[in-house]
């Protein structure tokens, strides 16, 4: 099997209207979701879920406003842990929102 350079792969994807930044953001969000409980702990992790990532802003849905508040208190520690992962997209800001999300575990 022939090896392909990453730049060539992205060029091919762009020809099919795939955006490199969008791909990086999607992969970064998937990694954060996968590791969310390790980043915030099981109790907070089971009551919240990273929903989206755009322009370096991570939006996290929380089951309850108290969960959002607890995560907000730990914001700098969570950001430090995320930065330690050396992800394709840097997270500059985390926004915690309380409310119903269809993806949150009941």
TrEMBL record:
<dbReference type="InterPro" id="IPR007922">
    <property type="entry name" value="DciA-like"/>
</dbReference>
<protein>
    <submittedName>
        <fullName>DUF721 domain-containing protein</fullName>
    </submittedName>
</protein>
<dbReference type="Pfam" id="PF05258">
    <property type="entry name" value="DciA"/>
</dbReference>
């Amino acid at each position: 099997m022939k090896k392909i350079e990453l730049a060539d792969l992205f060029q091919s994807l762009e020809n099919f209207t795939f955006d490199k930044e969008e791909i990086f953001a999607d992969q970064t969000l998937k990694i954060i979701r996968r590791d969310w409980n390790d980043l915030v702990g099981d109790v907070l992790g089971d009551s919240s879920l990273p929903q989206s990532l755009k322009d370096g802003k991570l939006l996290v849905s929380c089951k309850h406003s108290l969960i959002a508040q607890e995560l907000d208190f730990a914001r700098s520690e969570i950001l430090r842990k995320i930065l330690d992962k050396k992800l394709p997209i840097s997270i500059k800001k985390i926004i915690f929102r309380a409310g119903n999300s269809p993806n949150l575990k009941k």
